Amino acid sequence: MTMSRNLMLLFLLLCPLSTLGAETPLQVRFSNPAYPPFLGEQLAQGGIMSAVVREVFRRGNVSVSYSWYPNNRALQLARSGGSDGSLGWTPNEERQQDLLFSEQVVPFRMVLFQRVGESYPWQTLADLAPYRIGITAGNFYSDDFSRLQQQGVLKVDIAGDDNSNLRKLLVGRIDLFPMEWEAGQLLVHSQLRSVQARKLVPQAREYWTTPLCVALSRKNPQAPELLARFNRELRKMRSSGELARLITRTRQQVYDQLGIGEASAGLVARGSS
Prior knowledge:
By secondary structure, this protein is of the alpha+beta class. Helices cover about 40% and strands about 20% of the residues. Strands 3, 4, 5, 8, 9 and 10 form a 6-stranded antiparallel sheet that branches.
């Protein structure tokens, strides 16, 4: 009996972990855009979302690598199979043809930025018809926004990047500019002088809230397995409180690195996630 027990212990020590039920190690390559504080090659940990995704996948025995591209290029690489996926995207019907989307990593809260002291009342997006709205080429502003834009209800002025739209808003060439609540305030305070930044504010009301997710290319045969592992570990971290702590810690690192306090960017009053 002792001999049998010893042989069994020896077998367990020599047996590969995969034989004992451990998951096969996987790798995933992401093509990412820059979207501070969530994503950025030069940001601490690569930004909030990069840090979260790396840790969640690590717990699922998946190693992660990031490459950085302009906004549209990052997504197109994932859709075409040039990379295994991309971070920081919201699901819509058109994107889901080529991509699988994870559960929410962080919330994405779209608001309208405007000049201080001006009023643009609305109940639905259609009420914004009288105003000039800046948008950035390649960005998605919600299904309702796209529909009203295509119908000609909304008057849009297209720029190549968010910085250009901020400056157009500042000088009065547009009336409103939709951006994610936190990312927009960070952009205002990091790209404009203090006297200019104080002239722009987000409206208190969100016009659209949606999940910010991991997108995985359907062309990768391992995508369903990667998605299952990610969602499973993400739920565990959310339930334990580890996800919230990691987001808070990484956000602080990003803001410290940029030299912008959360209070300066207006983040304390609203909350972080």
